Amino acid sequence: MASVAVDPQPSVVTRVINLPLVSSTYDLMSSAYLSTKDQYPYLKSVCEMAEKGVKTITSVAMTSALPIIQKLEPQIAVANIYACKGLDRIEERLPILNQPSTQVSLGQKC
User: Fold this and answer.
1) How far is residue 56's CA from residue 13's CA, in Å, rounded to a whole number?
2) Mean pLDDT score across all residues of the chain
3) Coil, strand, or helix at residue 40?
4) Average pLDDT score over residue span 35-49
5) What does DSSP assign to residue 102?
6) pLDDT-based confidence at 40, cuts 50/70/90?
7) I want to staple 100 with a disulfide (CB 3.0 to 4.6 A). Which of 1, 24, 26, 90 is the partner?
8) Which family does it belong to (predicted)?
């Protein structure tokens, strides 16, 4: 009997990152950040040092956490399923999440 490959459910993190509102807002902020760095050389050097520090810390943290993550993989998979179900409900209730930030209008309250 032939086995059927089942695609694993995407992680909730991947789903959130791919929401049009989130990804377009990230793109806008990233562009503003890069533009600011290009305009101000002193700020650029400070930002680059901070970026290097964050990359180093992240690398060390991932290396240290990897054994724990591997051990907890089954629990993480279950948590991901519940988080995805919750995200499904949020997306139903907040259709704004499926619009790019350029199309979102935040009304002013007086």
Assistant:
1) 22
2) 90
3) coil
4) 95
5) G
6) very high
7) 24
8) Belongs to the perilipin family.
Whether 97 is covered by a domain: the verdict is: no
Quote the tokens at residue 93: 């209730």
Structure tokens at 87: 């995200």
Classify residue 22: in a domain, yes or no. yes
By three-state DSSP, how is residue 72 classified?
coil
Q: Which helix (H) or strand (E) holds 91?
A: helix 73-93
- Which range of residues forms the domain containing residue 77? 12-92
Q: Find the distance separating the first CA and the last CA of the chain, reported in whole Å.
A: 67
96: its two tokens: 């704004």
Amino acid at 41: P
For residue 79, tell me if it sits in a domain: yes
Q: Does 73 fall in a domain?
A: yes
Q: What is the DSSP letter of 19?
A: S
